[in-house]
Amino acid sequence: MMASEQGQKKKKQQLPQEDGFKPSPFDFGPSLQKKLYGAEAIAHYRRSKLVSKFLERWAARRLGTARTYRTRLANLSLYVHREYDKMELDAYVELLKEGKLDVYEELANLLVWLQIKRHETMKMAPSTVGLTIVTAKKFLRASGVKIERDEFMDRVPLPKRYTTEKAALTKADVAAILNACRDIRLKTVVLFLASTGARATESMSVRIKDLKIGDGMEQPAIATFRPETTKTGEGRTVPLTTECVAQLQLWLKTKYRPHYSAGKFVTPEIKEADLLFAKWHPDGSNPGVPMLYDTVRHDFNDTLEMIGKDRWE
Q1: 10 Å Cβ neighbour count for 276?
Q2: Contact 13, 57 (CB under 8 A)
Q3: pLDDT by residue (tens digit) across 35-72?
Q4: Which of 71, 140, 232, 313 has the most crowded Cβ, counting Cβ within 10 A?
Q5: Beta strands at 236-239 and 222-225: parallel, antiparallel or unpaired
Q6: Cα(292)–Cα(296) distance, rounded to whole angstroms?
Q7: Where is 264: in which H helix or E strand?
Q8: How far is CA 204 from CA 133, 160, 257, 307, in A?
Q9: Alpha carbon of 219 to those of 141, 212, 239: distances in Å?
């Protein structure tokens, strides 16, 4: 490899990864890509200009909503890719606009496909199926396909949603999970969630600058959740328990400890824009919040499975 190419590669690796919105890449983990989508289906989805335009408009309004829509519309793209012999998604939408395909029949077929044919083992919950259909309808209408509300409700019966009463975790449950955490980061995440009551994605979005660890009653420890990262779009400040503060201090001490990396001794620099629960990287980059969430989620699921609590409702 030539010196100039090595320099360009090194420069590219040193660029920080911003947690911005990128319409084309998938945020799914490698295992999910391999099991469900595959490289060809992913490329098929990325080529859709209509999806990119739709997501960019929603990202300007609400970033979290755009990410959710991106995941749901991936199922519409996969349906078209499999059921219409790899037809481009934009070409499929044109057939719907021209009336060559019945949009209500297609949405009904998509619903059945999601429930039965999408994957043999990775089944979707009825509520997720319904939300995917509603998002597909929203996307098609934004793309110029005429859909009447009453006819949609008559011809595309959404799955019935059932709700069950959910009990909160007991103190003993939380203690058992904390004791089973083999990784200091995961233990800190679990204690942070228990202390703040925040949603997982909200916690993964917390930066160093959003955390204020005080010195008692005069300066109580707090965590700030920015409005652009919350589900409701409203920011809030939550006090932290003494146990949570102690665990956070231990995690930050471990995260930024001097250590050997790539054959040399380094002292990590604490940056205010660093994500709280992201591990330190030599190039100073941050992973995207969805990627961080996916990593922590898998670690948490493995921990629950290890102690036999992975079947909770």
Answers
A1: 23
A2: no
A3: 567 778 888 888 999 999 999 999 888 877 888 899 89
A4: 140
A5: antiparallel
A6: 6
A7: strand 264-266
A8: 28, 32, 21, 24
A9: 51, 9, 11
Distance of CA 256 to the CA centre of its chain: 26
Tell which residue, 26, 13, 9, has the closest CA to residue 281. Answer: 13
Q: CB of 185 within 8 A of CB of 277? A: yes
Torsional class of 166: left (φ above 0), alpha (ψ -120 to 50), beta (otherwise):
beta
In this structure, what token pair is assigned to residue 208? 């160093």
Phi, psi of 189 (to 5 degrees): -60, -45
- The residues, any chain, with a CB within 8 Å of residue 165's CB and separated by 6 or more, are none
Rounded to 10 degrees, the C-alpha dihedral 292/17/277/230 comes to: -70
Tokens of 110: 């998509």
10 Å CB burial of residue 296 (0-12, 13-18, 19+) is buried
pLDDT tens profile 123-170: 788 899 999 999 999 999 999 999 999 999 999 999 887 777 777 788
The answer to whether 132 touches 113, Cβ cutoff 8 Å, is no
Residue with tokens 């990775």: 122
Instruction: Determine contact, residues 225/202, Cβ cutoff 8 Å.
Output: yes
**Contact by Cβ (8 Å): 180, 188:** no
Q: Are 145 and 93 in contact (CB under 8 A)?
A: yes
Task: State the residue for tokens 């070409």.
Answer: 91
* 180 neighbors 310 (Cβ within 8 angstroms): no
**Residue 155: both structure tokens together:** 């011809």
pTM exceeding the 0.70 threshold for the entire prediction: no
Match 């591990």 to its residue by tokens: 279
What's the CA gap between 278 and 281, in Å, rounded? Answer: 9
